[in-house]
Every structure is written in structure tokens, then in C-alpha cells.
Design goal:
Shape: globular
Strand order of the largest sheet: 1-2-3-4-5
Order of helices and strands: HHEEEEEH
Number of domains: 1
Radius of gyration: 16 Å
Largest sheet: 5 strands, antiparallel
Helix content: 25-40%
Distance between the termini: 57 Å
Strand content: 25-35%
Structural class: alpha+beta
Number of helices: 3
Length: 102
């Protein structure tokens, strides 16, 4: 019993963040593009988007707080959209991984 309690205590506690919530919503919007998505937790969570049709088509999308909303940023620093424009942002991300045309 002490061993299972110790193992439980070592598990990191995941506190939901606003950024994680917005990344999860973006992942939901990306579902229509038939890409794989996963929110990766860490110091700053990010959304890993993968096109299953290409082994090299992977993009990590960051989310950062802005004055009035949250911004989605590509791994190479380009602004993709805001939390208020999930559909447009999802289209841009899908385009980056080759899952749709411009």
C-alpha cells in the first residue's frame, strides 16, 4: 500500500491552463481536416499537428495570451490566428501540414 501511495504522489498534477483549453478547441476544429492532433503538456503546452499522409508534415502550434484573446503561433514564429477565429486558424494549420489547399 505504501508503494502505491508513493507512486501516486510522484505523478505530476496537471492544472488546466487557458492556453491548453484553447489548443484543445483548435484541435477540435482541425478534426474536419483528417489530421492527427495531440496537446503536449510542459512548461508551455503546444498542439502537435501531423498529416498522416506524410511522415514529415508536422507542425507544433503554440498559444500565447494577448491583451484581448489568445494567439496561435507556428513553431517558426508566424502568427496563425486568434482564439476568436478558430475556423480560419485551423485552415491555416491544415494548409501548413498539407492537408488542404490554400
Amino acid at each position: 500500500m505504501a508503494q502505491s501511495r508513493q507512486a501516486h504522489e510522484e505523478q505530476p498534477i496537471r492544472v488546466p491552463s487557458e492556453e491548453r483549453e484553447h489548443l484543445t478547441k483548435l484541435a477540435g476544429e482541425l478534426a474536419r481536416y483528417e489530421v492527427s492532433t495531440a496537446v503536449v503538456d510542459g512548461d508551455a503546452p503546444y498542439l502537435r499537428v501531423t498529416n498522416p499522409e506524410s511522415a514529415h508534415a508536422v507542425e507544433d502550434v503554440l498559444c500565447e495570451r494577448r491583451e484581448l484573446d489568445h494567439a496561435f503561433i507556428a513553431s517558426f514564429g508566424v502568427y496563425l490566428g486568434s482564439s476568436g477565429s478558430l475556423g480560419v486558424t485551423a485552415h491555416k494549420v491544415a494548409w501548413l501540414v498539407g492537408a488542404t489547399e490554400a
